[in-house]
Amino acid sequence: MAKILLVEDEPQMQRGVKDNLEFEGYEVDVANDGKAGLKKLLDNSYDLVLLDVMLPQMSGFDVCKKVREKSITTPIIMLTAKGEEIDKVLGLELGADDYITKPFGLRELLARVKAVLRRSEGATGGSAQKMVLGSLEIDFATYNASRSGESVQMTPKEFEILKFLWQQRNKAVSRDQLLTNVWGYDESISTRTVDNFILKLRQKIEDDPAHPKHIITLHGLGYKLIP
After folding, report:
1. Where residue 87 falls among pLDDT bands split at 50, 70, 90?
2. Taking the model in full, what pTM does it have?
3. 210-226: average pLDDT
């Protein structure tokens, strides 16, 4: 069964989430603040992280950012008491895989955990393909990207977006399709989230991001990946 790290400073919340996840058969490790959570992530291997945003010592956003800077691709679900779109978008852009807003029910939490673990298992399965765009090579099985032998740093979400576009290459893909298939839910997050990720991806994969040749904007429709 999957091993989960819970980074949460509220004792009641920590105990309740831990007990319920263990009841479902998951192995659960805990940390009480951001710095402790970051250290555990750097020193241990987990299948999933439940990361509170408002933490002592270091915020969940900062933990997520530092983890992704270290090229650690462990799936992260952000726990936030804030419902504003900017907080959700910021977490996703920093490399989080999903978010859940407090207060949340047990069924919702378990559904999110299972969905993210399922997507993560699929992303590392043997059926993953490799993508070549000019001098850029991407291995979706190992989440590695390189250009002319030099490593290219990408977040897990960027890999997933590229993988979906690659699977639909030469076809029009709407922003809603990307949100549904990459993030795995139909919540009303602004499609600006997708646009922001596409802009960042172009900076990494296009020779001239201002005049892209591979990820093309289809005005009024979405995007198209052209090999």
Report:
1. low
2. 0.60
3. 91
Residues 84 and 143 in one domain: no
Q: Tell me the per-residue pLDDT of 140-179, one tens digit each, with 9 for 90 and over.
A: 877 888 888 888 888 888 888 998 898 888 889 998 888 8
Q: Which amino acid is at 41?
A: L
pLDDT at 206 over 50: yes
Q: Quickly count: other Cβ atoms within 10 Å of residue 210's Cβ.
A: 7
135 and 26 housed in the same domain: no
R_g of the chain computed on alpha carbons: 18
DSSP symbols for the chain? --EEEEE---HHHHHHHHHHHHHTT-EEEEESSHHHHHHHHHHS--SEEEEESS-SSS-HHHHHHHHHHTT----EEEEES---HHHHHHHHHTT-SEEEESS--HHHHHHHHHHHHHHHHHHTSTT--EEEETTEEEETTTTEEEETTEE----HHHHHHHHHHHHTTTS-EEHHHHIIIII-S-----THHHHHHHHHHHHHH-SSTTS-SSEEEETTTEEEE--
User: Which of 123, 154, 172 finishes a domain?
Assistant: 123
The predicted pLDDT at position 85 comes to 58
Query: Which of the listed residues 123, 155, 180 is the one where a domain comes to its end?
Result: 123
Name the residue among 95, 159, 96 with its Cα closest to residue 129: 159
Most confident of 87-91, 93-97, 151-155: 151-155
